[in-house]
Design goal:
Elements lengths: L9 H40 L6 E7 L5 H14 L3 E7 L4 H10 L6 E4 L4 H7 L12 H5 L12 E2 L2 E2 L2 E13 H6 L11 H15 L16 H11 L5 E2 L4 E2 L4 H15 L12 H9 L5 E5 L2 H8 L6 E4 L12 E11 L6 H11 L2 H9 L4 E2 L15 H4 L5 E2 L16 H9 L5 H21 L19
Parallel strand pairs: 1-2, 1-3, 11-13
Antiparallel strand pairs: 3-11, 4-5, 6-9, 6-10, 6-11, 6-12, 7-8
Protein backbone atom coordinates (compact mmCIF):
# COMPACT_ATOMS: atom_id res chain seq x y z
CA UNK A 1 0.00 0.00 0.00
CA UNK A 2 1.46 3.21 -1.07
CA UNK A 3 1.85 6.35 1.07
CA UNK A 4 -0.74 9.19 0.89
CA UNK A 5 0.44 12.43 -0.74
CA UNK A 6 -0.26 15.52 1.37
CA UNK A 7 -1.25 18.59 -0.59
CA UNK A 8 -1.33 22.15 0.66
CA UNK A 9 -4.68 23.74 0.06
CA UNK A 10 -4.92 27.27 -1.42
CA UNK A 11 -6.12 28.52 1.97
CA UNK A 12 -3.09 27.01 3.70
CA UNK A 13 -0.77 28.49 1.12
CA UNK A 14 -2.35 31.91 1.64
CA UNK A 15 -2.00 31.61 5.40
CA UNK A 16 1.64 30.61 5.14
CA UNK A 17 2.30 33.53 2.79
CA UNK A 18 0.75 35.94 5.29
CA UNK A 19 2.97 34.64 8.08
CA UNK A 20 6.06 34.91 5.92
CA UNK A 21 5.25 38.47 4.93
CA UNK A 22 4.43 39.39 8.52
CA UNK A 23 7.73 37.99 9.74
CA UNK A 24 9.55 39.79 6.98
CA UNK A 25 7.73 43.07 7.76
CA UNK A 26 8.48 42.73 11.47
CA UNK A 27 12.13 42.17 10.67
CA UNK A 28 12.21 45.22 8.42
CA UNK A 29 10.47 47.32 11.07
CA UNK A 30 13.03 46.26 13.67
CA UNK A 31 15.81 47.27 11.29
CA UNK A 32 14.17 50.68 10.69
CA UNK A 33 13.70 51.27 14.43
CA UNK A 34 17.25 50.17 15.14
CA UNK A 35 18.56 52.41 12.37
CA UNK A 36 16.56 55.38 13.61
CA UNK A 37 17.75 54.82 17.15
CA UNK A 38 21.32 54.68 15.92
CA UNK A 39 20.87 57.99 14.09
CA UNK A 40 19.38 59.61 17.19
CA UNK A 41 22.15 58.29 19.41
CA UNK A 42 24.69 59.55 16.90
CA UNK A 43 23.12 63.03 16.90
CA UNK A 44 22.88 63.40 20.69
CA UNK A 45 26.53 64.29 21.29
CA UNK A 46 26.42 66.85 18.47
CA UNK A 47 23.23 68.35 19.85
CA UNK A 48 24.77 68.54 23.29
CA UNK A 49 27.82 70.34 21.91
CA UNK A 50 25.98 72.82 19.66
CA UNK A 51 24.28 75.91 21.14
CA UNK A 52 20.54 76.05 21.46
CA UNK A 53 18.68 78.01 18.83
CA UNK A 54 18.57 81.64 19.97
CA UNK A 55 15.14 82.62 21.22
CA UNK A 56 15.70 86.37 21.60
CA UNK A 57 17.54 88.66 19.20
CA UNK A 58 18.85 91.95 20.60
CA UNK A 59 19.75 94.60 18.01
CA UNK A 60 22.75 96.63 19.21
CA UNK A 61 23.70 99.91 17.47
CA UNK A 62 26.97 101.82 17.80
CA UNK A 63 28.89 104.47 15.87
CA UNK A 64 32.29 103.23 17.10
CA UNK A 65 34.21 101.28 14.50
CA UNK A 66 37.65 101.34 16.10
CA UNK A 67 36.74 98.71 18.73
CA UNK A 68 34.49 96.43 16.67
CA UNK A 69 36.83 93.42 16.78
CA UNK A 70 36.91 93.47 20.57
CA UNK A 71 33.13 93.85 20.67
CA UNK A 72 32.66 90.89 18.31
CA UNK A 73 34.85 88.68 20.47
CA UNK A 74 33.13 89.65 23.72
CA UNK A 75 29.64 89.30 22.25
CA UNK A 76 30.54 85.84 20.96
CA UNK A 77 31.64 84.83 24.45
CA UNK A 78 28.41 86.25 25.90
CA UNK A 79 26.29 84.28 23.42
CA UNK A 80 28.07 81.07 24.35
CA UNK A 81 27.25 81.72 28.01
CA UNK A 82 23.68 82.87 27.17
CA UNK A 83 22.56 80.63 24.28
CA UNK A 84 19.02 82.03 24.48
CA UNK A 85 20.22 85.53 23.39
CA UNK A 86 21.54 86.47 19.96
CA UNK A 87 23.26 89.88 19.67
CA UNK A 88 23.22 91.55 16.27
CA UNK A 89 25.68 94.46 16.18
CA UNK A 90 25.11 97.25 13.66
CA UNK A 91 27.76 99.94 13.12
CA UNK A 92 26.87 103.31 11.59
CA UNK A 93 30.15 105.21 11.80
CA UNK A 94 28.83 108.03 9.59
CA UNK A 95 25.53 109.89 10.01
CA UNK A 96 24.66 107.79 13.06
CA UNK A 97 22.07 110.21 14.45
CA UNK A 98 20.36 110.47 11.05
CA UNK A 99 20.23 106.68 10.70
CA UNK A 100 18.86 106.36 14.22
CA UNK A 101 16.10 108.87 13.49
CA UNK A 102 15.19 106.98 10.33
CA UNK A 103 14.92 103.77 12.34
CA UNK A 104 12.59 105.44 14.83
CA UNK A 105 10.51 106.98 12.05
CA UNK A 106 10.15 103.51 10.54
CA UNK A 107 9.25 102.12 14.00
CA UNK A 108 12.19 99.71 13.86
CA UNK A 109 14.59 101.10 16.47
CA UNK A 110 17.38 98.96 17.95
CA UNK A 111 16.91 97.40 21.37
CA UNK A 112 20.17 98.79 22.77
CA UNK A 113 21.98 101.73 21.24
CA UNK A 114 24.83 104.11 21.86
CA UNK A 115 23.59 107.48 23.04
CA UNK A 116 25.42 110.84 23.02
CA UNK A 117 27.52 112.03 25.92
CA UNK A 118 26.00 115.50 25.86
CA UNK A 119 22.67 117.27 26.30
CA UNK A 120 21.33 115.72 23.08
CA UNK A 121 20.27 112.86 25.37
CA UNK A 122 17.59 115.15 26.82
CA UNK A 123 16.04 115.49 23.36
CA UNK A 124 16.02 111.72 22.92
CA UNK A 125 14.28 111.35 26.27
CA UNK A 126 11.79 114.05 25.30
CA UNK A 127 11.12 112.20 22.03
CA UNK A 128 10.35 109.06 24.01
CA UNK A 129 13.24 107.03 22.65
CA UNK A 130 14.82 105.91 25.92
CA UNK A 131 13.73 103.71 28.80
CA UNK A 132 14.75 104.71 32.35
CA UNK A 133 17.27 102.28 33.84
CA UNK A 134 16.43 103.00 37.50
CA UNK A 135 14.83 99.60 38.12
CA UNK A 136 18.17 97.87 37.57
CA UNK A 137 20.66 100.37 39.01
CA UNK A 138 21.34 99.89 42.70
CA UNK A 139 23.60 102.00 44.96
CA UNK A 140 26.11 99.13 44.88
CA UNK A 141 26.09 99.17 41.06
CA UNK A 142 26.73 102.94 40.91
CA UNK A 143 29.46 102.79 43.57
CA UNK A 144 31.87 100.92 41.27
CA UNK A 145 32.16 103.90 38.90
CA UNK A 146 34.26 107.05 39.24
CA UNK A 147 32.57 109.95 41.07
CA UNK A 148 30.59 112.21 38.78
CA UNK A 149 30.13 109.67 35.98
CA UNK A 150 26.33 109.83 36.16
CA UNK A 151 25.93 113.49 35.21
CA UNK A 152 22.82 115.62 34.99
CA UNK A 153 21.72 116.44 31.41
CA UNK A 154 24.04 113.70 30.10
CA UNK A 155 23.18 110.41 31.82
CA UNK A 156 20.55 111.65 34.26
CA UNK A 157 17.47 113.49 33.02
CA UNK A 158 14.99 114.86 35.57
CA UNK A 159 16.27 112.49 38.23
CA UNK A 160 16.14 109.33 36.12
CA UNK A 161 19.15 107.45 34.75
CA UNK A 162 18.95 106.79 31.01
CA UNK A 163 22.53 105.96 30.11
CA UNK A 164 25.64 104.28 31.47
CA UNK A 165 28.99 105.54 30.11
CA UNK A 166 31.70 102.90 30.07
CA UNK A 167 34.65 104.81 28.65
CA UNK A 168 36.59 108.06 28.76
CA UNK A 169 38.36 109.74 25.84
CA UNK A 170 40.97 112.48 26.08
CA UNK A 171 42.03 115.22 23.64
CA UNK A 172 45.63 114.74 22.50
CA UNK A 173 48.25 115.60 19.89
CA UNK A 174 49.64 112.61 17.98
CA UNK A 175 53.01 113.03 16.31
CA UNK A 176 55.11 110.91 13.97
CA UNK A 177 58.46 110.18 15.59
CA UNK A 178 60.01 108.90 12.36
CA UNK A 179 59.40 112.20 10.58
CA UNK A 180 60.62 114.12 13.62
CA UNK A 181 63.93 112.21 13.46
CA UNK A 182 64.18 112.64 9.71
CA UNK A 183 64.16 116.45 9.98
CA UNK A 184 66.36 116.65 13.09
CA UNK A 185 63.67 117.15 15.76
CA UNK A 186 63.87 115.32 19.07
CA UNK A 187 61.20 112.56 18.91
CA UNK A 188 60.77 112.74 22.67
CA UNK A 189 60.06 116.48 22.67
CA UNK A 190 56.76 117.24 20.95
CA UNK A 191 55.63 120.88 20.60
CA UNK A 192 54.41 122.35 23.88
CA UNK A 193 53.21 125.75 22.64
CA UNK A 194 51.35 127.07 19.61
CA UNK A 195 54.54 128.79 18.47
CA UNK A 196 56.46 125.51 18.58
CA UNK A 197 53.62 123.76 16.75
CA UNK A 198 53.89 126.27 13.89
CA UNK A 199 57.70 126.11 13.83
CA UNK A 200 57.78 122.31 13.83
CA UNK A 201 55.12 122.11 11.11
CA UNK A 202 57.02 124.57 8.92
CA UNK A 203 60.33 122.80 9.38
CA UNK A 204 58.89 119.38 8.60
CA UNK A 205 56.99 120.67 5.57
CA UNK A 206 60.08 122.39 4.16
CA UNK A 207 62.18 119.23 4.59
CA UNK A 208 59.44 117.09 3.07
CA UNK A 209 59.52 118.91 -0.29
CA UNK A 210 56.06 117.65 -1.12
CA UNK A 211 56.62 114.11 0.16
CA UNK A 212 55.34 114.82 3.67
CA UNK A 213 53.89 117.75 5.62
CA UNK A 214 53.88 119.06 9.15
CA UNK A 215 50.17 118.81 9.92
CA UNK A 216 47.02 117.12 8.61
CA UNK A 217 43.28 117.78 8.94
CA UNK A 218 40.54 115.75 7.24
CA UNK A 219 37.89 118.46 6.96
CA UNK A 220 35.56 116.88 4.41
CA UNK A 221 33.25 116.38 7.38
CA UNK A 222 33.35 119.72 9.28
CA UNK A 223 32.94 118.08 12.71
CA UNK A 224 36.76 117.86 12.91
CA UNK A 225 36.82 121.59 13.71
CA UNK A 226 35.56 120.62 17.16
CA UNK A 227 38.96 118.98 17.66
CA UNK A 228 41.17 121.41 15.82
CA UNK A 229 39.53 124.68 16.90
CA UNK A 230 37.30 124.18 19.95
CA UNK A 231 39.74 121.95 21.85
CA UNK A 232 42.59 124.37 21.19
CA UNK A 233 40.38 127.28 22.29
CA UNK A 234 39.67 125.44 25.53
CA UNK A 235 43.36 125.24 26.51
CA UNK A 236 43.39 129.00 25.84
CA UNK A 237 40.62 129.43 28.42
CA UNK A 238 37.66 129.49 26.06
CA UNK A 239 34.29 127.78 26.30
CA UNK A 240 31.43 128.01 23.83
CA UNK A 241 28.97 128.73 26.64
CA UNK A 242 29.65 131.25 29.38
CA UNK A 243 28.66 129.40 32.56
CA UNK A 244 28.54 132.64 34.53
CA UNK A 245 26.36 134.77 32.22
CA UNK A 246 24.37 132.05 30.50
CA UNK A 247 25.26 133.29 27.00
CA UNK A 248 27.13 131.75 24.08
CA UNK A 249 30.52 133.28 23.35
CA UNK A 250 32.17 131.82 20.25
CA UNK A 251 33.01 135.36 19.25
CA UNK A 252 35.82 135.53 21.83
CA UNK A 253 39.61 135.70 21.78
CA UNK A 254 40.33 132.02 22.54
CA UNK A 255 38.24 130.87 19.55
CA UNK A 256 39.58 133.56 17.25
CA UNK A 257 43.16 132.69 18.16
CA UNK A 258 42.57 128.97 17.65
CA UNK A 259 41.02 129.66 14.25
CA UNK A 260 43.91 131.96 13.34
CA UNK A 261 46.35 129.16 14.22
CA UNK A 262 44.72 126.77 11.74
CA UNK A 263 44.41 129.49 9.09
CA UNK A 264 48.13 130.27 9.52
CA UNK A 265 49.12 126.62 9.12
CA UNK A 266 47.07 126.43 5.95
CA UNK A 267 48.37 129.71 4.56
CA UNK A 268 52.04 128.77 4.90
CA UNK A 269 51.47 125.35 3.32
CA UNK A 270 52.12 123.31 6.47
CA UNK A 271 48.87 121.32 6.15
CA UNK A 272 48.76 118.30 3.83
CA UNK A 273 46.97 119.44 0.64
CA UNK A 274 43.44 118.26 0.00
CA UNK A 275 42.10 118.78 3.52
CA UNK A 276 38.58 119.49 2.25
CA UNK A 277 38.41 116.34 0.16
CA UNK A 278 39.56 113.89 2.85
CA UNK A 279 37.69 112.74 5.92
CA UNK A 280 39.28 112.09 9.30
CA UNK A 281 39.97 108.44 8.44
CA UNK A 282 41.98 109.43 5.37
CA UNK A 283 43.81 112.07 7.38
CA UNK A 284 44.76 109.47 9.99
CA UNK A 285 45.82 107.09 7.24
CA UNK A 286 48.08 109.81 5.83
CA UNK A 287 49.61 110.19 9.29
CA UNK A 288 50.20 106.44 9.53
CA UNK A 289 51.70 106.45 6.00
CA UNK A 290 54.35 109.01 6.97
CA UNK A 291 52.76 111.75 4.85
CA UNK A 292 52.01 114.02 7.82
CA UNK A 293 53.82 114.52 11.11
CA UNK A 294 51.09 115.78 13.46
CA UNK A 295 47.35 115.34 13.92
CA UNK A 296 44.97 116.38 16.70
CA UNK A 297 42.45 113.78 17.81
CA UNK A 298 40.91 111.81 20.62
CA UNK A 299 42.47 108.88 22.40
CA UNK A 300 40.31 106.65 20.19
CA UNK A 301 43.03 107.14 17.55
CA UNK A 302 45.07 104.37 19.18
CA UNK A 303 42.53 101.77 18.12
CA UNK A 304 42.40 103.25 14.61
CA UNK A 305 46.17 103.26 14.14
CA UNK A 306 46.82 99.81 15.56
CA UNK A 307 43.73 97.72 14.82
CA UNK A 308 41.83 99.41 12.01
CA UNK A 309 44.86 100.34 9.90
CA UNK A 310 47.24 97.68 11.29
CA UNK A 311 49.91 100.36 11.08
CA UNK A 312 53.44 100.10 12.44
CA UNK A 313 53.93 103.87 12.46
CA UNK A 314 56.22 105.04 15.24
CA UNK A 315 54.01 107.61 16.94
CA UNK A 316 54.02 109.58 20.17
CA UNK A 317 51.17 111.06 22.21
CA UNK A 318 51.33 114.48 23.85
CA UNK A 319 49.07 116.98 25.58
CA UNK A 320 47.63 119.66 23.33
CA UNK A 321 50.02 122.57 22.80
CA UNK A 322 49.02 125.70 24.72
CA UNK A 323 49.24 129.44 23.94
CA UNK A 324 52.73 130.89 24.07
CA UNK A 325 51.99 132.77 27.31
CA UNK A 326 50.92 129.56 29.03
CA UNK A 327 47.93 127.37 29.70
CA UNK A 328 44.66 129.14 30.47
CA UNK A 329 42.33 126.17 30.48
CA UNK A 330 42.39 122.39 30.80
CA UNK A 331 41.87 120.16 27.79
CA UNK A 332 38.55 118.33 27.60
CA UNK A 333 37.98 114.74 28.70
CA UNK A 334 34.83 113.09 27.43
CA UNK A 335 32.58 110.35 28.65
CA UNK A 336 32.18 107.83 25.86
CA UNK A 337 30.47 104.60 24.91
CA UNK A 338 27.27 105.46 26.74
CA UNK A 339 24.50 102.90 26.33
CA UNK A 340 20.73 103.10 26.63
CA UNK A 341 17.71 100.87 26.10
CA UNK A 342 14.96 101.61 23.60
CA UNK A 343 11.57 102.42 25.09
CA UNK A 344 10.06 100.18 22.41
CA UNK A 345 12.12 97.07 23.01
CA UNK A 346 10.05 93.93 23.43
CA UNK A 347 12.82 92.36 25.51
CA UNK A 348 13.79 94.80 28.30
CA UNK A 349 15.34 92.17 30.59
CA UNK A 350 17.53 90.75 27.83
CA UNK A 351 18.42 94.28 26.69
CA UNK A 352 19.51 95.13 30.23
CA UNK A 353 21.81 92.08 30.22
CA UNK A 354 23.57 93.58 27.21
CA UNK A 355 23.85 97.05 28.78
CA UNK A 356 25.12 95.48 32.00
CA UNK A 357 27.69 93.56 29.94
CA UNK A 358 29.09 96.57 28.04
CA UNK A 359 29.22 98.57 31.29
CA UNK A 360 30.92 95.78 33.25
CA UNK A 361 34.43 95.61 34.69
CA UNK A 362 35.18 92.55 32.55
CA UNK A 363 34.19 94.35 29.33
CA UNK A 364 36.10 97.52 30.24
CA UNK A 365 39.21 95.54 31.12
CA UNK A 366 39.34 94.04 27.65
CA UNK A 367 38.74 97.44 26.06
CA UNK A 368 41.47 99.12 28.10
CA UNK A 369 43.95 96.33 27.39
CA UNK A 370 43.21 96.72 23.69
CA UNK A 371 43.77 100.48 23.92
CA UNK A 372 40.20 101.45 23.04
CA UNK A 373 39.36 103.81 25.90
CA UNK A 374 39.98 104.65 29.55
CA UNK A 375 37.49 102.91 31.85
CA UNK A 376 34.90 104.70 33.97
CA UNK A 377 35.63 102.07 36.64
CA UNK A 378 38.89 103.42 38.06
CA UNK A 379 40.19 100.04 39.26
CA UNK A 380 40.48 98.92 35.63
CA UNK A 381 42.98 101.63 34.69
CA UNK A 382 46.07 99.92 36.12
CA UNK A 383 49.58 99.88 34.63
CA UNK A 384 49.08 96.19 33.84
CA UNK A 385 46.10 97.06 31.62
CA UNK A 386 47.57 100.21 30.03
CA UNK A 387 50.21 98.42 27.96
CA UNK A 388 48.99 99.29 24.47
CA UNK A 389 51.30 101.78 22.75
CA UNK A 390 50.31 105.31 23.72
CA UNK A 391 47.69 104.23 26.23
CA UNK A 392 49.46 105.51 29.34
CA UNK A 393 49.86 108.95 27.78
CA UNK A 394 46.21 109.00 26.70
CA UNK A 395 45.14 107.95 30.21
CA UNK A 396 47.05 110.84 31.78
CA UNK A 397 44.30 113.18 32.99
CA UNK A 398 46.64 115.70 34.65
CA UNK A 399 45.70 118.50 32.26
CA UNK A 400 42.15 117.37 31.46
CA UNK A 401 38.75 117.95 32.99
CA UNK A 402 35.14 117.00 32.41
CA UNK A 403 33.57 120.28 31.38
CA UNK A 404 30.01 120.92 32.57
CA UNK A 405 27.29 120.27 29.99
CA UNK A 406 25.88 123.23 28.12
CA UNK A 407 22.48 123.57 26.41
CA UNK A 408 23.72 123.92 22.81
CA UNK A 409 22.64 120.43 21.66
CA UNK A 410 19.15 121.07 23.03
CA UNK A 411 18.53 124.08 20.79
CA UNK A 412 16.82 124.37 17.42
CA UNK A 413 19.48 126.46 15.74
CA UNK A 414 18.60 128.24 12.51
CA UNK A 415 21.49 128.38 10.06
CA UNK A 416 24.96 126.79 10.09
CA UNK A 417 26.39 125.43 13.33
CA UNK A 418 29.84 126.05 14.80
CA UNK A 419 31.68 123.45 12.73
CA UNK A 420 30.23 124.67 9.43
CA UNK A 421 30.95 128.26 10.39
CA UNK A 422 34.57 127.27 11.08
CA UNK A 423 34.80 125.61 7.66
CA UNK A 424 33.58 128.82 6.03
CA UNK A 425 36.09 130.93 7.96
CA UNK A 426 39.10 128.67 7.34
CA UNK A 427 38.29 128.44 3.62
CA UNK A 428 37.93 132.22 3.29
CA UNK A 429 34.20 132.19 2.59
CA UNK A 430 33.23 133.96 5.81
CA UNK A 431 34.77 136.86 7.69
CA UNK A 432 35.73 135.66 11.17
CA UNK A 433 34.36 138.41 13.41
CA UNK A 434 31.04 138.73 11.58
CA UNK A 435 30.51 134.97 11.29
CA UNK A 436 31.20 134.27 14.96
CA UNK A 437 29.09 137.22 16.11
CA UNK A 438 26.22 135.97 13.95
CA UNK A 439 26.61 132.44 15.35
CA UNK A 440 26.39 133.75 18.93
CA UNK A 441 23.35 135.85 18.03
CA UNK A 442 21.52 132.86 16.53
CA UNK A 443 22.45 130.57 19.43
CA UNK A 444 21.37 133.03 22.10
CA UNK A 445 18.10 133.64 20.24
CA UNK A 446 17.46 129.89 20.12
CA UNK A 447 18.33 129.66 23.82
CA UNK A 448 15.85 132.41 24.72
CA UNK A 449 13.17 130.66 22.71
CA UNK A 450 13.83 127.32 24.45
CA UNK A 451 13.66 129.01 27.86
CA UNK A 452 10.36 130.74 26.95
CA UNK A 453 8.92 127.40 25.79
CA UNK A 454 9.88 125.82 29.11
CA UNK A 455 12.27 123.32 27.49
CA UNK A 456 15.35 124.64 29.27
CA UNK A 457 15.88 125.98 32.75
CA UNK A 458 18.87 128.26 32.40
CA UNK A 459 19.69 128.16 36.12
CA UNK A 460 20.57 124.48 35.76
CA UNK A 461 23.54 125.45 33.57
CA UNK A 462 24.79 128.47 35.52
CA UNK A 463 28.03 128.00 37.53
CA UNK A 464 28.97 131.31 39.20
CA UNK A 465 32.48 130.18 40.21
CA UNK A 466 33.34 128.32 36.97
CA UNK A 467 37.08 128.18 36.29
CA UNK A 468 38.51 126.43 33.19
CA UNK A 469 41.68 125.62 35.12
CA UNK A 470 39.93 123.80 37.97
CA UNK A 471 38.64 120.25 37.83
Amino acid sequence: MGGQETRATPHALHSMDQKTRANRGESQMKKIIAGSLLIVLTMVPALMKSPLVAQTKIIFWTWNRHDMEVKKRLFKKFEQEHPDIDVEMVIHADRYQDMLKLAWDAETPPDVFQIPENTLVALQVEAGWLMPLDQWITPEFKAQYMPGIFRNHVSVIKGHIYGIPSGIFTAKLFYNKSLFRKVGLDPEKPPRTWKELKEYAQKITKAGKGRFYGFVIGAKDPWVYSMNVEWMAMVAGGTAFNYKTGKFQYNSEPFKRALSLIIGLKRDGSILPGMNSMDDDRARLAFCSNKAAMIIGGSWNLGVFIDQFHSNVDFGVADLPVPDEGRKGLAPAFLSSQWGISSRTKHPQEAWKIVKLVASKEWMTEMVRAGKYIATIASVNTPENLKTKGMRECADLTYHKFYPPDPEEMLRLEGPDFNNVCAGIVNGQLEMNKALADLDKRLNKALSRAIAEGKIRLEEFIIPDFNPMKK
